[in-house]
Amino acid sequence: MGRGRPRTCVAPCRFCQRQFKRVEHLQRHERTHTREKPFTCHCGQTFSRQDLLSRHQRLSHPQEGAPSEQIGINSDHHDGHSEQYLTSPTDDASSPVHRKSLGVGGLDDQETHPQLLMSQPIAQLAAPTETSMVEPTSFIDSIGHDEFAFLWNDDFTPGDQPLPLDFFDTDQSLVDISHQYAAASQTQRAPIEGPAPNPRPVIYPAPDTIPFLSAPASITSRDPSALAMRFPSLEPEIKPADPDSVAPVTSYRPLSAVEHNRPYTCPWRISCQDYQQLSRDLSAFSELLPPSFQCPSRPTLSRYLEGYFRGYHDHLPFLHTTSSTTSLGIELVISIAAVGALYRFEHAKGYELYRVAKAIVNKRFDEWNEEATANLSDAPEAGYAGFASSLPDGQPSLVTSPRKKLPPKAIDGQSGFSSLRLLQSFIVLMSLTSWSDRGLMRDALSLASQVAMVVREVGIGQPEDEPDWDTSWDVWMQVEERRRTLFVAYIVLNLQCMAFNVPPLLLNQDVAINLPCCATIWRAASAKEWASTVHLSAHPGNKSFQLALQELYSGKVQGRFSAFGNYIMIHALFQQIFFARNANTSTPNTLDQDFIRRIEVALRSWQESWEASYDSTLDPSSPKGPIGFNSTAVLRLVYIRINVNTGPKRQLITRNPEEIASAFAEGQIQIGNRSPHLDRAVLQCIHALSVPVRVGVAFVARTQTFSWSIQHALSNLECALLLTHWLRSIAQSVEVSGPESLRSDERKLLDMAVSLVLETELADAIENMQYDGVGIRRLAASTIRIWAETFKGFQVFEIVHRIGLGLCLVAGMLDREIRGSS
């Protein structure tokens, strides 16, 4: 006897003849043709889907809970041409086009016939409509006015193109989703009276909870409800237009004389007295310094420090802006100066400073180790077996005594230097060696083990209590700096894992401390500003790392993370995928489907938190900092690694462009089955390519070194790798089985890639191509050439330059392959 409900015959779509297994799926699809909005809220707004109505009610009417009217929905086919269901000129209040997300919006889903799309030259493709096929004069005409508007929408600045969560729901078709977004974008073309709107995208929470620390934000939106987010911002709700409106600080502990009198400091400004002190500190290590070394002059040293703080620091912000050279210590100052010299393109001087910093840091590390082992030689001659029984009466055994929490500050050595400063110096030097010349690669891996050891000693595995906001600013700043330093160490070790496929020496299970606070509180330059910011912050607390990870996997994140917290958590998800792939030795190119579903739930939860954070932005030059932008690079890597095991094949650890290129040429990477999961990873690759195409490939090549971090180079390499392999697999499928073998989502992705190349100087290479195997291979060669061009500018770190050389070799190989097959 058969089990389950009986199968029913569902009629095809009345407009495009597409088949569906369930009636509700057919009804939802047909509404993309008819533009019906049958779900109505009591406030008058209408929606095409029940989930959009529910989201609107949750965000716009959270306290009312009033039921909404549902008009014209039943199991039968409804009249698709009823005027009451036609889209009005006003915006859909819950239109996902307005959401601040990490993917693409505004795709036009105009269903095309596979034979027409795949067999004719681009210049002869027709633009499909709901009822007929029109023959345009060029492919650009066939795309239509709203086709792929997410790439060129004037309402978004280059770095802030949204990519809604709906596009990563593998239960929905990219074609259906893109049609809905294109339909929404068409309703937003009504002329707007008055002055031109601000071209910046709306990325703020609702108007009554707008967080800012300067002048009130000017918000222009065609849809007021588009400002709503799932959660209010983590940032403080400060309105500083009137100084008297700032909350008084009297509710907090009175400021000490030290805090009142603390002058504003700039980390790279060095006074004559400070320089003399640094020179004396450096002379104490004269026996370790190379004979030819001369301490940089005060202006030169200041220039190098400025290079670090303006170029590198914001990507890993663990030092407070009020830090001074005297408070940092000589080992950290020289380490920072070495990286800063690279950012001033004085590489020879940077490497010289690195050698000096390494000698000093190693000396400090030896002293630190000596303190831990100094008393071992004085230990009594006794066996370990009788140790517990020989304890004095009343003293608890080490075996049974509870584990004590370390104080929330770095452990200071007897020699007077801080282990926290030692750890910070290690982190800076590890960053320099990981991404610089190949000759420093051994140092990078050696430093990683030292970083992992010191991090554990400083207390990354010790749980923390909730922050005490009644403490002084100085004490709070020390605690937060320690916390940020530990997480930066965790991130840099993870970045080594991403780049070189080495196991990270800090595991997720090793981390027990709380996540960092939001950037606005951290950047406060005075005790008064800090107290006011904390007072006006809705939720200044810090959630523990382990609790945050559990909530991501459950799909129910309580509250929000800061932008830095989001960055940490996406690294945690990447680490989970890395170990899952390495544990799966029987089928290393596949992951368990249950694991994939859990990761996708966590990714959706993570993106919701990313959206809710005020610091999150896709603009690398945003005054909010690049952390949100950097998070998206890791997000793309996560989507890629879910589908493709690229890590072992790229050979970045060799720094050899030919070995990097061999991953493309020799077919070492298997992309697995073509599935909706893989479609989402390819979509991330296409969206990553759209950023330099829209901004300008040559412009990005010459400016990315100042605002793009190392993870963008790693992400772009893997995006180029996956997109190229995917296009070649599509070409092979067309050659073997014809264009009918491609799914509609794959055709949509293929058209996206074509539309990008048509906007570049390589448009001539594909302008007259046909959608056959050769044409798609030519498209693959063009996309990899665009990626390679973005790496052709001056680079701070050698690894970025080597990645660019590897991509150039791949582009050349693909060009030769195409010429050989022509």
Structure explained in plain terms:
With 822 residues, the protein is mainly α. Among the domains are: 23-88, no CATH class; 114-189 and 644-821, no CATH class; 269-372 and 410-458, no CATH class. 49% of the residues lie in helices and 1% in strands. The protein has 29 helices and five strands. The strands form two sheets. A three-stranded antiparallel β-sheet has the order 2-1-3. It starts with 22 loop residues before the first helix and ends with a helix. Residues 1-5, 65-146, 152-162, 187-264 and 395-411 have low confidence and may be disordered.
TL;DR of this structure?
The chain is an all-alpha fold.
Considering the chains and any ligands shown, give keywords for the structure.
metal-binding, 822 residues, three-stranded antiparallel β-sheet, 29 helices, DNA-binding transcription factor activity, RNA polymerase II-specific, two-stranded antiparallel ribbon, nucleus, disordered N terminus, C2H2-type domain-containing protein, single chain, globular, mainly alpha
